[in-house]
Structure formats: structure tokens, C-alpha cells
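[agent] plan:
  1. take the single chain provided in the ticket
  2. run structure prediction with default settings
  3. attach C-alpha cells to the ticket
  4. add a short note for the reviewer (M.T.)
[agent] executing step 1
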Amino acid sequence: MRFELENKSMMAHPMHLHGYSFRVDNGIGRGPIKDTVLVEPLQKVAIDWVGDNPGSCALNCPIKRLT
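[agent] step 2 finished; step 3 output follows
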């Protein structure tokens, strides 16, 4: 499954997938395998994920918003 993450903010966000790894699309072939990818401000990142670990998982950014 492919996720396309888009950061519409002016702050970088590390997106983390609990319990899984994914391949980052680097545009030139087989990208690195990670469980966290940094999505820079106003940028998009595509990741390819195989859901082969039974159970629930969460995709989140661990940075807390200050309001």
C-alpha cells in the first residue's frame, strides 16, 4: 500500500509508523527501509508499506503542537 504524506506546515514533521517498517520512495529505485521519515515543510513524501504484522498500528507525528 502506498501512502503519500504531505506537509502543509512550515515545520518539519517526523512521521512514525508503530510496529512496521516501510520503504521510502526516493525517485531513483529502491529507497531505504525505515519506521520514521522526516517530511520537510511544504514537501511530499511517498512510502510503500506491507501490512504483514497482525494487530493495530498508528501512523503519527510525535511532535506536540504548542497552542
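[agent] step 4 note for reviewer: The chain has a mean pLDDT of 87.
[agent] ticket updated
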